[in-house]
Amino acid sequence: MDVTNIAELSGNLAVIGYGLAAVGPGIGVGLVVSKTIESIARQPELAAKLQVTMWLGIAFTEALALIGLATPFIFG
Questions:
Q1: CA-closest candidate to residue 71, choices 34, 6, 22
Q2: Predicted confidence band of residue 51 (pLDDT cuts 50, 70, 90)
Q3: Which 8-state DSSP code applies to residue 29?
C-alpha cells in the first residue's frame, strides 16, 4: 500500500466511526423527547418544567455527538 491508499482508508474509517458515534446520541435524544411527551401527557401542569429539563437532556446528549466528531481530529 502506498501513502495515498492509507490516507483514503483512514479517512473512510473516520467517517464510519463518526456515523457509529452519531447513533448513540440519536437514540438518546429520541428517548429523552419521548419520555418528556409521555410525562407531559400524564401531568400537563408540569409542562414548562419538563420542557426545560428536556432541552438540558438534549444538549448533554448532543455533546456526545460533538465529542465523536472532534475525536478523529484530536487523535488523527
A1: 22
A2: very high
A3: H
